[in-house]
Amino acid sequence: MHRTRCEAGKSNRDLTAILETMPGAMLVLDEAGTLQKFNGAAVQLFGYAAGEVVGKRAELLMEDWQARSCPASADRQAGAFKYCGVGLRKDGSRFPMELVLAEWRSGLRPYFVGLAIDLTEKQHADARLQALQREMIHASRVSLMGTMASAMAHELNQPLCAITNYLKGLKYAASRHAEERQPDFTTILDKTADQALRAGLIIGRLRDLVAHGESERTFENIDRLIEDTSALAFPDARDHGVHVTVNHELRGELVLVDRVQIQQVILNLIRNATEAVADAGRREITISTAVADESMLSVMVADTGPGVASHRVPRLFEPFATTKRDGMGIGLFISRVIIESHGGKIWHEASPGGGAAFCFTLPRIAQDELDHAA
What we know:
Low-confidence stretches: 72-76
Number of helices: 10
Radius of gyration: 32 Å
Order of helices and strands: HEEHHEEEHHHEHEEHEEHEEH
CATH topology of the largest domain: Heat Shock Protein 90
CATH architecture of the largest domain: 2-Layer Sandwich
Number of domains: 2
Strand order of the largest sheet: 2-1-5-4-3
Number of strands: 12
Helix content: 40-55%
Structural class: alpha+beta
């Protein structure tokens, strides 16, 4: 008995010495959640002296800990347990923290040795990274629209010219006083209004696409989203003599996405395909949607161009990897960032009709998710 107590005491002293050499904030809890040890780094993190916390419950240091006890065996994975929550300092300040606990035994009694980590800097770094990604995505979107500006200007010029012609016709009709010309006024004004609306829709699409707002996800019909995006890409494709076909296999399928970001991905893939078929004998682009599996749907943009050289495929989605003489090489990289942030994947494969095909997936929205959202 005496020997057992001596060994336990030595083990306890050894553990204390080891904890004090650790640069991280270390603490030891018993099975009831009572603090047993508290090293120097923990003193600096929480602001309490060791004597102020040893023997006290862990909720002194961690918010909502009173609703917990130390992990039961069934809760442990690979001997460790992770608590993520809010740390409480002596001065009353709070901070995001993570506590990783591992079981340690002294004789027959179980204890839990924990490493407390202040997540403040990590969260700030994550926020800075997300802000940088948003800036890159926006810059890429503006650059993409810049390359399509000529076609967009031509597309906008058509309804504006039509409005001008209709108004000239209206002026001519108004200058004639015969009553039989009166019914034409309504027709001319209706046509003028239609063209003004068309011009407004084009401007609205452009404004939405280059807007620098916060990311917001909404439920969107994937086929309608592709149709709206294709309407922006068609003028550029038409100027290059490219025929675009959209095949809808999904009817009414919804996705929870940032509409503008997914439009950016689709638009970038269509633009790349348009450039790929520029010198091809057959200039065709096919956009299709399909169900990938029970949880995902897929979108494919395929072209009849020369395809992608096999040695370039592994680096297609890396930043600054480009086959274009004047390209920046960030379009596919930004597309990958966007799709992966939505829980999907993006990849390249050989097109069934020759050329290249770029595919991406997005999570499908189950009916119970829609019911819950409603």
